[in-house]
Amino acid sequence: MTTTTKDEPRRSTAKKGSMKRRFGRVRQLPSGRWQARYKGPDGLDRAAPETFSTKRDAEVWLTKKEAEIIEGGWTNPDLGKVAFKDYGEGWVSERPGLRPKTVQLYEGLLRIHLVPIFGGMAVNEIKAAHVRKWRKTLLDNGVGPVTVAKAYRLLKAIMNTAVEDQMIKTNPCQIKGGGKEESPERPTLTVEQVYALSGAIEPHFRALVLVATFGSLRWGELAALRRKNVDLEKGTVRIVESTTDLRDGSVVLGPPKSAAGVRTVALPSFVVSALRTHMDRYTADHGEAFVFLGAKRAVLRRAAFSRPWAKALKRAGLSGIHLHDLRHTGNVFASRSGATLRELMDRMGHSTTRAALIYMHTENGRDRAIADGMGKIAEEVMRKAAEEGSGT
Q1: Which are the contacts of 101, defined by CB distance < 8 A and separation ≥ 6?
Q2: Where do the structural domains in the chain lie, given as residue ranges?
């Protein structure tokens, strides 16, 4: 039987360098640093993701972790160990109702700008400092600000879902204005330049230039326009479809860009006249026929249109003009003709807080007045140009 004297110290059953606490425990490692461990709500024994220089720091960390559990803010760190590449690709594939063009955009941003940096990292390893460095590197390497903004918004959306999935506590995308697009102001053509382009392009595209401008239509809306949706008597086109050009060269038909994109647009009389002539010559005589077709009478493709467009720009003495600039130009003309902001948004097919506003002004005749006003401006400019050319 072993006995101890009064003055002999009791032997502790705790390991050297270890300190028991009411919640968790800390111990000193051979390196001299301190480790904190605790039992999570899932019953598993877990270590802090980092070690600490002092015992006090380790204890403070445990105190915060205990409060986090009590307040219901604890997240399972194992959930966030999924590779960002896998989580990001899954995020895109799981989004309901994405348009094919949006899926293509997201997949491209992931592949080119996000996965090369974050792909091999676990979701819970991505910190705010990583995001700041990644964004600055893209901009320093000459990636366009608009593209960087799109990539940042996608990253932020993915990480927001990771927060909802309790993989991380906070979103590391904290850059103020990081997702804001500041596109450079696009050029506005004059009426003379629009007519010059229309005259310079191949004959079966001349009406397309005028409709794109004075109807403020998007490329996909032009390519999807069918005979049955053109009312030459009323001088209107009904937008109900849009095309999307995919990377593999295929074209997908679907609804317009937004619900507001479904609309009826009035055209100036001189554009209606050009459209009538075009349809008599180039559009098949049945309702489903596409109004504008490619050179081989196939559905219009953006890539195939680029060549005749470039030739027309050269013949018209213009450069740096995109087809979308015609829509921008038409919006400017409509604004000058006296359209209000709401009328302009209706005409452009932009979403509003009240869906009824989409059709309100078309019904009360204001859209016709806008179209007529645009026509008067264009006709007056061309009349003066003709008089100056004849010397009268």
Answers
A1: 244, 245, 246
A2: 18-68, 80-164, 191-390
